[in-house]
Amino acid sequence: MDWDAFFTLHDGLPREGPGDGESLDWALALAGVPEDGVICDACCGPGADIAGLLAHVPQGRVEAPDLHGPFAIRAAARFADDPRVTVRQGDMGDLSGAYDLIWPAGALYFLGVAEGLARWRGALSPGGAVAFSEACWCTSAPSAAARAAWAEEYPQMTDEAGVTAQVSAAGYRILGQRRLSDAAWEAYCTPMEARIAALRPGADAALASVLDEAETEIATWRACRTEFGHLLTVARPA
């Protein structure tokens, strides 16, 4: 992967993965975050979810670290006038809290479900929760095309039962689970397609390769979306 080309593609996109306001609202209602709560938007990207998180803590605050400096800068600029938001460049694997909710959206796979949850236990306030989405199989017999799409990026991908087992292994209990909707995926895919079209003319070999991979990812999801998806899980230390 040419990371410069990767970030050229992702620069300016509203989201870094599937998600939408409806799924966020469902998760936060289930977690029972208080109105004066503190939320960590872990690996916040360009800040797509910060406004939605703030709506649930009108007397609280949101801390939003991201390891990629340009994402942190962009998110900070979007909320520069809101004292309830603190954006910083930082590693989501090194959180100190205490947070009423940790929301990594779809980024927990960088740490691994069990390892990430175990690390974050000490960063949660009493009664705090983690809400995350995880790519998983929706069938016991995925097609060759679906398997090929994930073989390199996430070969350890499992199904809902596997995600549940990892949550339990970290010492958490599940409050609820649901799959992200097609609308949540399109909130990521549709802007990505527009970005690919804008970058395609004049793209060098490295960028063209990244654009091809992104187009294949989108096409595979649309063709195989009954076979895999993202499972949104809300869990609390047992």
Automatic annotation (TrEMBL):
GO biological process, one term: methylation
Annotated Methyltransferase domain residues: 39-128
Domain of life the protein comes from: Bacteria
Protein's recorded name: Methyltransferase family protein
Annotated keywords: Methyltransferase, Transferase
Classification via InterPro entries: Methyltransf_25, SAM-dependent_MTases_sf
GO-annotated molecular function: methyltransferase activity
